[in-house]
């Protein structure tokens, strides 16, 4: 019986690590301290009131939140069933196991009833560890504990450091789960939560109205810290045989003041004093209190001392930095053996045994950091940072500035990726455990796995994808490190991929393997293709001589990792059973035509003689729901699919296997064939039998507001605006009219929309909610302004049958319609003009249509029971029809990344399809022959120049969108920057090839020879206002000035930055040049003498992406990789106000309006934001565009629109005087198709602004 209990608990993994947490979290409150708050928490646990089931403790870093949480669990562990989990930043895989870790602890409790309930749940759900987080929560916690209604002992669940969860995903999900399921749990189940006061988490918690404790307002903390110091110094006196009078009372008081109320400061200071000569270290600490007060200052002093002791040996210094970086960036726990294994090939350790290397790290190299790092006595325990605030400091460029221990996030991830891949290439092999029997299960090989898979290999297998994908945000193709990384990545992909999967099976990491394969596949699709498609042949192990072959080789890698996802997902069960089943059960069933099959079929131990599949099936899975499916919709994060049935049941399924998440929500009395979900999945609108509409809470099933009445006939169509929580509803009727309602008030909005001569079958709001499209039995489509109720233009005609389905493209420029004439048509949403020919192929009426999130794929579902995919740019069908449903297709929804399509049918099933036909996998997400790296508008506003990664420049007519002349060719590397001379006659281009070329902007002819003097790629160019001087900034860290007429260099290079130059810009009078660098600083230079002006401008925590002067030259604006913009006084160098925050990605461009009152910014988050150029206050709402990254923003003249240029070649025009919140880009009549560059430019402006 005991063995069976142990087996069941082992299904949940190791719960103790989540309970143990960091070193600080293991320490309990010192006796006599935190008495008041601990008493309040005790009283809360005892309180039976239903309104006090959740308590959250807030406080800034170092206040002692985790110590209090651990103390509460320690004090109650014999009186209650307790479970605690400490979140860790960056350790995604561990954080995702939070529920299993909590359940494991509850299943080991001393209370038999609780233990029994957990074991029963495990017995019935033995695969629960592989399920989604919510299903784990409901099965292991809600379902189990809800059975204990008569149980009186407290059940305490503690979630500590919620803010350390990656991007807050698990934390917010858990908060929502707790809130939703609290009524189902017995009153003795309590949740204790802790988090810092910053970010969105506190707002999420405050909105719940739960009880809270604020440690930042704790008045008793000074006395507690004083008590803590006294007791610890007493222990220190005894250990070091010091005088009873040491330390003096005055010294003690000064230490308390220096702590600033932070227990973490007190603990770290005591550790530091204890680790050396206590009297000397205390004297040193008190001699300069300004250097040691506060956490940052204390950490700096300890770090500086450690690095000072190592500075005489450069190799030792770099090794110490590498150790710190590994601890900070590791996604899984790190042992001393792992540090020694990863970094032990240093010349320093030549000829030294591994055990001696480990002892050197413990006793020597890391000894000076013992007050910041827990260095365990046993090699079986991981090293841990004492507090998350240490990692915060080490990775913050602003707080660390140029100190030697600053961790360059990307660089160190790259180095760790290289080390991990090197270990894997060297150590991975077939059947690594030497198993002779295929039937041996993973659970039977624990000892063998521990012996054969050494810790360094285990870490490498679990961590390599994180280091690889996090380390390539801005790689350089000629980088030796990256060349090595890609070479080893190719070996892993083509030779050792299944051997890696073996290890993942042995360490019970199959779900992690699936996540990692997806991570790598997305990396290949986006980042790697963008940066390395031209250099892939150089590092490829397969013969490739030209760009085409290199690109094909890259596509094979992308296909291979797509296949790996499908392979692990489809064969999870046999693979997880035991590593040899990879070869005996899964591989024989792998389609032979896939890249995975081609590379690895020879490893199969069972051969398929007949009936082998050539490719993966388009269908990923099918699930019967027992009722007709009316709606399917992916959640915004792609982690769940909402399924709405005709019987009024709403439930959620996880995408990987289709398993149900939680229990269905039943909408009372809502049985209807007409129901619609809001885009945020919070609200549901349904038709009732009495011609009314009801709104429901999609999670609780409760009605919202009163029934909406007004139609005199049967309601035939319902639509909710994107982003709506159901407060606005449009519905059409058999009476041929459309009505808009405010669900909050129950009032009709305006008059009915009239114009159709037939019943309304379908409606759709544009993505920004400013246009409503309706399709009718009269075979026409109409566009409406929902704010005024007015019809926009004439009825759109062309179909020969009734309109069943309509949908806007994500950018709102194209409207697709599906008809009873069996065709789909595309329309220009701005003009109503027809785009191209009808899309033909279905043999029956079109029932539903849906665009992919990037607008590059259109899906159509039909009464012929098939789904077809179309390229809306060309009108061509993509791949074969998706067949499998036996009823009409009611609904379809793409996943947020566009790779998966969910469909719901009258056949009572939901199906998930692979939306990436194999011929398209591996193509860049932006589908044109070259990626747009740079764009520039001529100062006279007549032409646009674009630079591509195919080494060419193209010129476009800004008014017609037509290309002018032939591509400008001459560079041998992609184009990073282009700039027009002030008179628009000369175009300068800078390239990866390290040269600058000048072109006649009217003829496209090259002007003389290229300018060659930089020793690395040139990133930025800028003409002086009078056009006589050209400035260039390069990755060689230098800025050069050139005579634009003679192309000769002017003076010496401007040197001062410690890293590559990202941006250069002249002041309006041409006397000052501003430069922004990867070193995180901005510098000002005298453009006449080349002398540096003042000190560097510091404040950003990331590298500088762009700089720009205000029109009067008094303000410098800078954009950064840290997603913020800063304003600086150009005369004094002082920062003006706070950082301008709002973007969620690095800033690509900033531009002042001609009068300096408005600053525009564009980012990779696809947002354009407007700011007050004097105060930095935000103006209006951001302008979001799905066309691609915003790579350039500019104002031409006072009377012309603001212009934004997008990475896929789209041009957005917006008048400065228009409120940003009302801006809705629509296309001008010129281009008829939504082509991307280089086919055609799109100049888009509001109709009222179009010239």
Describe this structure in a few short sentences:
This protein is α+β, with helices and mostly antiparallel strands. A hairpin with a 5-residue loop joins strand 53 (1125-1129) and strand 54 (1135-1140).
Write a structural description.
The chain is α+β, with helices and mostly antiparallel strands and 1251 residues long. The strands form 16 sheets. A five-stranded parallel β-sheet has the order 2-3-4-1-5, with helices on both faces. Strands 8-35-34-33 form a four-stranded antiparallel β-sheet, with no helix packed on it. A four-stranded antiparallel β-sheet has the order 9-10-11-12. A hairpin with a 5-residue loop joins strand 51 and strand 52. The longest helix is centred in the middle third of the chain and has 24 residues, at 547-570. The chain starts with a helix and ends in a 7-residue tail after the last strand. Residues 21-25, 531-550, 918-930, 1197-1202, 1206-1210 and 1212-1251 have low confidence and may be disordered.
Which key phrases capture this entry?
alpha+beta, 33 helices, 29% helix, 1251 residues, 4-stranded antiparallel β-sheet, disordered C terminus, 5-stranded parallel β-sheet
State the distance separating the first and last CA atoms.
83 Å
Estimated helix fraction? 25-40%
Biggest sheet character: 5 strands, parallel
Chain-averaged pLDDT: 81
Question: Quick one: how many beta strands?
Answer: 62
Spatially, the strands of the biggest sheet line up as: 2-3-4-1-5
Count of separate DSSP helical elements: 33
Strand content: 25-35%
Q: For the CA atoms, what is the radius of gyration? A: 32 Å
Shape by Cα distribution: globular
Q: Name the structural class.
A: alpha+beta
Query: Can you tell me the residue ranges where pLDDT is under 50 for at least 5 consecutive residues?
Result: 21-25, 531-550, 918-930, 1197-1202, 1206-1210, 1212-1251
């Amino acid at each position: 019986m005991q063995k069976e209990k142990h087996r069941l608990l082992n299904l949940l993994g190791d719960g103790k690590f989540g309970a143990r947490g960091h070193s600080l979290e293991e320490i309990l409150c010192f006796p006599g301290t935190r008495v008041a708050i601990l008493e309040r928490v005790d009283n809360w646990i005892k309180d039976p009131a239903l309104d006090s089931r959740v308590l959250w403790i807030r406080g800034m870093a170092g206040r002692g939140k985790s110590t209090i949480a651990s103390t509460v669990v320690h004090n109650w562990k014999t009186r209650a069933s307790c479970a605690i989990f400490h979140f860790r930043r960056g350790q995604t895989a561990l954080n995702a196991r939070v529920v299993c870790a909590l359940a494991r602890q509850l299943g080991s409790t001393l209370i038999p009833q609780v233990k029994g309930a957990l074991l029963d749940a495990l017995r019935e759900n033995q695969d629960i560890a592989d399920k989604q987080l919510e299903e784990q929560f409901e099965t292991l916690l809600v379902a189990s504990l809800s059975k204990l209604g008569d149980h009186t002992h407290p059940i305490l669940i503690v979630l500590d450091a919620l803010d350390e969860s990656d991007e807050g995903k698990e934390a917010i999900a858990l908060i929502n789960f707790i809130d939703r399921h609290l009524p189902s749990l017995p009153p003795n189940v309590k949740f204790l939560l802790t988090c810092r006061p910053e970010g969105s988490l506190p707002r999420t918690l405050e909105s719940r109205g739960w009880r809270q404790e604020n440690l930042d307002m704790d008045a008793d903390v000074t006395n507690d810290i004083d008590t803590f110091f006294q007791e610890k110094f007493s222990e220190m006196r005894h250990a070091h045989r010091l005088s009873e009078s040491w330390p003096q009372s005055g010294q003690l008081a000064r230490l308390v003041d220096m702590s600033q109320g932070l227990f973490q400061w007190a603990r770290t200071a005591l550790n530091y004093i204890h680790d050396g000569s206590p009297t000397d270290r205390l004297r040193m600490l008190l001699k300069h209190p300004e250097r040691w007060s506060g956490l940052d200052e204390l950490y700096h002093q300890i770090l500086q001392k450690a690095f000072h002791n190592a500075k005489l040996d450069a190799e030792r210094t770099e090794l110490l930095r590498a150790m710190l970086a590994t601890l900070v960036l590791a996604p899984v726990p790190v042992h001393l053996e792992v540090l020694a294994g990863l970094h032990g090939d240093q010349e320093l350790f030549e000829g030294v045994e591994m055990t001696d290397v480990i002892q050197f790290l413990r006793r020597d190299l890391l000894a000076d950091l013992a007050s910041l790092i827990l260095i365990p006595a046993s090699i079986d325990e991981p090293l841990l940072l004492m507090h998350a605030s240490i990692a915060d400091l080490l990775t913050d460029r602003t707080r660390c500035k140029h100190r030697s221990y600053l961790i360059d996030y990307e660089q160190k991830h790259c180095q760790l990726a290289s080390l991990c891949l090197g270990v894997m290439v060297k150590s991975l092999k077939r059947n690594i455990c030497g198993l002779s029997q295929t039937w041996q299960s993973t659970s039977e090989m624990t000892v063998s796995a521990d012996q054969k898979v050494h810790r360094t290999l285990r870490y490498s297998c679990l961590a390599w994808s994180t280091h690889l994908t996090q380390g390539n945000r801005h790689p350089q193709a000629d980088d030796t490190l990256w060349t090595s990384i890609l070479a080893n990545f190719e070996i892993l992909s083509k030779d050792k991929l299944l051997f890696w999967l073996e290890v993942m099976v042995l360490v019970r990491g199959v779900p992690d393997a699936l996540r990692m394969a997806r991570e790598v596949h997305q990396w290949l699709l986006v980042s790697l293709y963008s940066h390395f498609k031209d250099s892939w042949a150089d590092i490829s192990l397969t013969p490739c001589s030209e760009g085409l072959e290199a690109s094909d080789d890259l596509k094979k890698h992308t296909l291979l990792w797509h296949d790996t996802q499908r392979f692990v997902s489809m064969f999870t069960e046999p693979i997880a059973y035991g590593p040899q089943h990879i070869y005996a059960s899964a591989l024989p069933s792998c389609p032979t035509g896939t890249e995975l099959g081609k590379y690895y079929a020879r490893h199969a131990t069972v051969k398929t003689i007949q009936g082998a599949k050539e490719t993966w099936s388009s269908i990923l899975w099918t699930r019967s729901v027992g009722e007709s499916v009316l709606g399917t919709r992916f959640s915004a994060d792609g982690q769940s699919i909402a399924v709405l049935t005709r019987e009024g049941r709403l439930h959620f399924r996880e995408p990987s296997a289709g398993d149900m998440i939680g229990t269905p929500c039943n909408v009372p009395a809502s049985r209807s064939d007409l129901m619609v979900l809001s885009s945020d999945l919070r609200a549901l609108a349904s038709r009732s039998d009495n011609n009314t509409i009801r709104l429901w809470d999609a999670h609780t099933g409760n009605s919202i507001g009163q029934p909406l009445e007004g139609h005199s006939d049967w309601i035939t169509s319902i639509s909710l605006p994107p982003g709506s929580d159901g407060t606005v509803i449009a519905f059409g009727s058999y009476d041929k009219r459309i009505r808009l309602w405010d669900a909050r008030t129950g009032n009709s909005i305006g008059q009915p929309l009239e114009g159709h001569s037939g019943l309304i079958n379908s409606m759709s709001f544009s993505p920004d909610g400013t246009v409503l499209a309706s399709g009718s039995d009269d075979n026409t489509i109409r566009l409406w302004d929902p704010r005024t109720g007015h019809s926009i233009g004439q009825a759109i005609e062309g179909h020969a049958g009734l309109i069943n389905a309509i949908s806007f493209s994500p950018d709102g420029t194209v409207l697709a319609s599906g008809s009873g004439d069996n065709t789909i048509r595309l329309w220009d949403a701005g003009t109503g003009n027809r785009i191209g020919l009808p899309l033909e192929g279905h043999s029956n009426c079109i029932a539903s249509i849906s665009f992919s999130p990037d607008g590059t794929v259109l899906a159509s579902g039909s009464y012929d029971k098939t789904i077809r995919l179309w390229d809306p740019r060309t009108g061509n069908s993509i791949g074969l029809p998706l067949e499998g449903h036996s009823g009409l297709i009611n609904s379809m929804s793409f996943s947020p990344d566009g790779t998966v399509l969910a469909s719901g049918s009258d056949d009572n099933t939901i199906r998930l399809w692979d939306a990436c036909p194999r011929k398209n996998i591996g193509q860049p997400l932006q589908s044109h022959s070259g990626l747009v790296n740079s764009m520039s508008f001529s100062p006279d506003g007549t032409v646009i120049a674009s630079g591509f990664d195919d080494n060419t420049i193209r010129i476009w007519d800004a008014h017609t969108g037509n290309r002018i002349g032939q591509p400008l060719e001459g560079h041998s590397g992609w184009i990073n920057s282009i700039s027009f001379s002030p008179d628009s006659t000369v175009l300068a281009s800078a390239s990866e090839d390290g040269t600058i070329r000048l072109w006649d902007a009217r003829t496209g002819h090259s002007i003389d020879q290229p300018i060659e003097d930089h020793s690395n790629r040139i990133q930025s160019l800028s003409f002086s206002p009078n056009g006589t001087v050209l400035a260039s900034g390069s990755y060689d860290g230098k800025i050069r000035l050139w005579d634009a007429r003679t192309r000769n260099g002017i003076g010496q290079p401007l040197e001062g930055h410690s890293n590559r130059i990202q941006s250069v810009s002249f002041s309006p009078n041409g006397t000052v040049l501003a430069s922004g660098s990867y070193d995180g600083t901005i510098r000002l230079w005298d453009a006449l003498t080349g002398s540096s002006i003042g000190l560097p401008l510091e404040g950003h925590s990331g590298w500088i992406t762009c700089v720009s002067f205000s029109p009067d030259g008094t303000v410098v604006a800078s954009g950064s990789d840290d997603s913020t913009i800063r304003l600086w006084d150009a005369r004094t160098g002082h920062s003006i106000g706070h950082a301008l925050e709002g973007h969620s990605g690095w800033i690509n461009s900033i531009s002042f309006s001609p009068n300096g009152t408005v600053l525009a910014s564009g980012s990779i988050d696809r947002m354009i934001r407007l700011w007050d150029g004097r105060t930095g206050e935000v103006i209006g709402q951001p302008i979001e565009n799905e066309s691609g990254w915003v790579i350039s923003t500019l104002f031409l003249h006072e009377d012309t629109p603001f212009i934004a240029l997008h990475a896929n070649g789209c041009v957005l025009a917006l008048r400065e005087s228009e409120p940003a919140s009302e801006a809705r880009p629509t296309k001008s009549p010129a281009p008829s198709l939504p082509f991307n560059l280089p086919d055609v430019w799109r100049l888009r402006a509001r109709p009222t602004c179009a010239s």
